[in-house]
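Structure in, sequence out. Go:
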């Protein structure tokens, strides 16, 4: 079940914010507004401040190539049916080189025709982590052929981070912004 109305309303008037939240608000402004995810999470500024440190590692400082990271994030968001996450990262995925065809196939999963063996292993890792909280030996070995220890760890933490984000977005009822595409049919 997905919420058509937010459970935690997003902040729409930054003049109502105080202290840490008021100080944080300008950091998240983009094109005259604050994305709904941040406008919602700012209701709990201490949590948001600490979460963004980890989130920024996964998104900007991870050892994973950006394209691989986005395959993992999109598959995780799709598995958790997090429309907001899918929409935000479909755009980012395109920016780092994913094609529209690849983005569509992410929803079909690792067995969809057209994936090379490594891309399929990445998608399979996301599936295994979101269903079993464990990457199986065969998938781990496939990833180990290309990835070092840091990258293997970043795979796990990327899926974990976006599982958490998907849970928050879905449960808090963060709504899509105008122009966001939502989940594929």
């Amino acid at each position: 079940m997905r919420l058509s109305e937010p459970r935690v309303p997003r902040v729409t008037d930054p003049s109502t914010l105080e202290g840490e939240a008021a100080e944080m608000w300008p950091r998240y402004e983009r094109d005259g507004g604050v994305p709904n995810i941040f406008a919602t999470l700012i209701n709990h500024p201490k949590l948001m401040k600490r979460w963004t440190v980890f989130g920024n590692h996964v998104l900007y400082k991870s050892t994973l190539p950006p394209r691989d990271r986005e395959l993992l994030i999109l598959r995780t968001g799709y598995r958790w049916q997090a429309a907001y996450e899918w929409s935000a990262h479909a755009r980012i995925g395109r920016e780092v080189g994913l094609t529209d065809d690849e983005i569509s196939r992410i929803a079909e999963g690792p067995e969809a025709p057209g994936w090379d063996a490594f891309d399929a292993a990445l998608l399979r890792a996301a599936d295994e982590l979101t269903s079993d909280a464990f990457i199986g030996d065969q998938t781990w070995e496939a990833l180990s052929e290309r990835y070092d220890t840091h990258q293997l760890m970043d795979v796990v933490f990327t899926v974990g981070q976006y599982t958490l984000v998907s849970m928050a977005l879905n449960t808090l009822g963060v709504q899509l912004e105008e122009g966001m595409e939502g989940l594929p049919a």
